[in-house]
Amino acid sequence: MTRSFYLYFKEIFHKPTRQEWDILKLAEPRFEKEYIFSIFLTHFIVYSLLLVPPFFEIRWDILPYLLGITIIRFVLLLQFYTKSIPLEKVIYVSGLFADGLVYLVFLKGIQHFPTLGNFYLLNSYLMSFIIPILLYSTRLKPMGCVISALYLSFFHISYNLQLPSEIANTTSFFSQYFLLFVYLGSGLLGVVFVLNKRKDTADMYSLSEERRFMLQELQLAKRVQDALFPGNIKIPNLTFTFYRKSPNVIGGDFFDFVQLREGNVGVFLTDVAGHGISSAMVASIMKVLVSTIPYRFKTAPAKLMDYLDDRLANDLDKYHASAIYLFFDFIEKKLIIGNAGHPYLILAKKGEEFTELETQGAILGFNIKIPPISEKTLPIAKGDRFFIYTDGLIESMDHEGNSLGTEGLLALLNRHRNSDNVKELENNLLFELKTKFGLDTFSDDTMFLILEVEE
Fold it and tell me: In the structure, what pLDDT confidence band is assigned to residue 15 with cuts at 50, 70 and 90?
């Protein structure tokens, strides 16, 4: 515990570096404004003296002093905007004169009503001077609290030296001067506040700079990742549209087309576990792996998935991913599917409802191959539609805490299965997801791809 306090005070009392000085200079005007506005508003508290004993008996005598305080504080407020004189000097001079006028008011009070009760009552009022002392801690100047404590201590000594003799002779030294300890203690406490604020200000600025740098890096990474996705390309015999959303700017959901000879095409979609930069990098690596994989694997989804499983397990042993690969063979009019732990393919033959196609396959990266990745083959014809997606779509919660789920997704697709084209189908899905289900923003990386056979 003692060592913790030592380290804490050592940290806040350290001499600022040049970079920290520059940061404090930038932040200083905002804190000066905060102090000036605070002291201007709080000085109106002194008008409450007109209503409390013994001052209400001499309220017309002390009112000019209180108005003088208001004028001084108003000049300080005005000076913040004009800055014709160095602001720091005006702050200290205005504090000196304003607090001096308050002490003159208290001196008038005790001299007009020199009773022991009033002496202790006024001392309790004078305790409130810790407020202007501590208000200096809203600035970034540690000496402000000390200067305020010192001149208030001077005023208090002068006040006690001018006490009526009947009061001075009947009260103890401690009762007369204990407020000096209060003022000086408040000044030291204010210094700690200021030094702590300076440290926090420098730390927050550094963190904000780091955050700004990271956001710039993320935006750059997003542009790079966006460039990896298929753009407005023409895929023979297929029309497609896709939607993707990541709460972390970039994410691990990715898809790509693998264009093959004879006009055939493969469609690869993966969902790398995790979020953010690391999963996005693994997804990019998987794009490279799929692009450079031997040709014989590109026409055999099960072999392609086995290859990716081995590479992830051996080269990136801390990451795993689900994936699905569709190989469209337009020569033989068939589709071969390989699924590695990914949500099932949803398909609709022309004029029919959307249904799930169950497939077997273990998630990639663990090299367990249980269950083994098995291929499924089905015929294709013009107008057939296929929907593949990542689980963020069905796991996201609406405002009532209900997830869409697979059944909800199937029902949603079938409500809009008569959409004229895949783009219209996408728009209808998104509209209902955002309005009826409240899924305006998805909590997880989310992607779906809609495909339709043209020929």
Answer: low
Domain encompassing residue 16: 2-211
What is the Cα–Cα distance from 158 to 104, expressed in whole angstroms? Answer: 10
Per-residue pLDDT tens digits for 193-251: 888 888 888 778 777 767 777 777 777 777 877 777 887 788 889 999 999 887 777 87
Q: Which residue has the tokens 């084209």?
A: 421
Same domain, 196 and 240: no
pLDDT, tens digit, for every residue of 318-348?
A: 788 999 999 999 999 999 999 999 999 999 9
33 domain residue, yes or no: yes
Query: What does the angle CA 148 – CA 92 – CA 197 come to, to the nearest 5 degrees?
Result: 65
> Is the model's pLDDT at 441 over the cut of 70?
no
Q: 401 phi and psi, to 5 degrees? A: 85, 15
What secondary structure letter does DSSP report for 266? E
Element (H, E) at 394: helix 392-395
Under 8 Å between Cβ of 163 and 113: no
In angstroms, the CA 144 to CA 115 distance is 35
Q: What is the rounded distance in angstroms from the CA atom of residue 404 to the CA atom of residue 398?
A: 8
Same domain for 31 and 161, yes or no, is: yes
Do 182 and 311 fall within a single domain? no
d(CA 453, CA 385): 7
Is there a single domain that holds both residue 108 and residue 33? yes
CATH of the domain at 317: 3.60.40.10
